[in-house]
Amino acid sequence: MKRHIHTSLVAALLIVPSALIAQKTEEPAPDSKPADSDPSHAKIPDGYRDWRLISVAREEGKIDDIRAVLGNDIAIKAYREGTLPFPDGAVIARIAWSLVPSEENNKAFGQAQSFVPGAPKNGVQFMFKDARKYAATGGWAYAQFGEADGKPVVDEAKLSACFTCHQPAAARDFIFTRYSLSGLAGQK
Amino acid sequence: MKRHIHTSLVAALLIVPSALIAQKTEEPAPDSKPADSDPSHAKIPDGYRDWRLISVAREEGKIDDIRAVLGNDIAIKAYREGTLPFPDGAVIARIAWSLVPSEENNKAFGQAQSFVPGAPKNGVQFMFKDARKYAATGGWAYAQFGEADGKPVVDEAKLSACFTCHQPAAARDFIFTRYSLSGLAGQK
Fold first, then answer.
1. Is the pTM of this model over 0.95?
2. Looking at the partner chain, which of B49, B177, B184 has a beta carbon nearest the beta carbon of A182?
3. Nearest-CA neighbor of A94 among A61, A63, A127?
């Protein structure tokens, strides 16, 4: 179950429970106002598909996808400067696709070797950094949106699994994905 | 040999031979001035690592890498609007890495399934569009820079293989890679 739930090491299915957020509002607001009524982390960030590339990965097993991890400007800057923990406002996105053979490519290569993205898969996931607001979950809110309907996945049963799984990366502020350099000197 | 040379379907090792370029200079310049003496396509474009993501892929076989394909603003705009052929100034970049198991991720997942980028591999490749200047090779110049030394790969023997291999994608202006949507409505 844990494996099924945790469809990404980058950002899993956790939506911070409103109960936790209510304890961590920016202002000492009255508890009667649920902080999760319109939480920024439950919205798809505008223009995230244009964010810069952090890295890529291939997940086999039940997840079975190829994925790209993108970061907003705050996240990219922190990655490149080695800033830990990530500053508030950093957002990391994970897009994934099924991995399918490319007949066209294979024909050009003369052998079966090429796999390319098929349909979007496993939703689009985000991690939103706010050290205070999401202190109960390491300073990050986790969110996932269905690739078919764009709706946020909210399932209390999935909440604890995400933060738990990310514990091994605690020393890197709970982020598994490392920035992938191109190898060219002077090129980030 | 062809397979070895052609380390990418996106952009292979072709550097347009100076002889061809001399026939296709912007101005009817004297042949005595080699157009390839300082060709833009033999320079690594500034800031290419910040370009937006077109797609990703996995190549097995001898190539054996995971790769990301990025585009400059002109290329991305053309992809999204379905503009063919690509306008002059479009540049497409291909970065690749070895694909290695992530022990850290696998431990978190509880099984071996996660593969992440290792060292940069197979150079960094570009395709530069200039319909007139590179008319002899379909309007594109192909370039590759070594991931270790950043030096352009120039090998006359590799020139014809690139353009030849890209022929099957002639209907898409010789570009194999398709733009990968995230799946979220309203998100490019």
1. no
2. B49
3. A127
